[in-house]
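worker-3 :: picked Transport permease protein
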Amino acid sequence: MAGQTRSLRPRFQTARATFALMLREMSSTYGRSPGGYVWAILEPVAAIAVLSFIFSYALRAPSLGTNFPLFYATAYLPFMMFNDIATKMSQSILFSRQLLSYPSVTIIDAMLARFLLSTFTHLMVFYLVIFGIHQIYDVRLIVDFPTVILALLSAAIFGLAVGTINCFLFTRFVVLRTVWSILMRPMFIISGVFFLYEDVPVELQTYLWYNPILHLTGMMRDGFYATYDATYVSVVYLYLLAGSLLSLGLLLLRRYYRDLLER
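worker-3 :: tokens ->
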């Protein structure tokens, strides 16, 4: 009985530390600016509105369906979910450096807190935006819920994996933060937010296939459009890559954790 009690203490301590860090993260991220969580919703809404306004004048209809906001939302939202989770995870040590000096708080606690809060926030934003589009435009949705859930889960896990490896890289090599920021700008363009994979010339499809985010956006659209079958999407490729990055990131953080705190 005493052994079971001792084994539960680390779990309780981790849960308590993670919850406390989530509250701190929520307060610092959304509590300091007027509007707080409202901005987390308004930002994607504004981006989708701008994209829809611009391309509705250039094109008669999107590549799928007839509703521009839904077409862009089904790719923009998973992309931003991945990107925001990866960014928040990569800053875990920088954000919680002072707290990590306490033995009761570990790097896993800090990363888990940021991951959970970012994931819950984006799930809420996703639901509100899609629900809003459905209500405003009276869009008839035939949603494949298992595929949509898998796409959301994949976006969160891939963001976790990339953010974990970047947590080590960005803390160890500061210049990589700028390099990553530059790389993500064209990544937004080539990740299927504006187009479908099938619309691209075959010569380019060969190279674009290796972009894992394109698999996320394709999977999400597959879940919302009954007439669309994203046959190019490979869940195996996505999770093998995510698993490799996550494992490598955790190994590097475990090995150099103390060195990184002193930087």
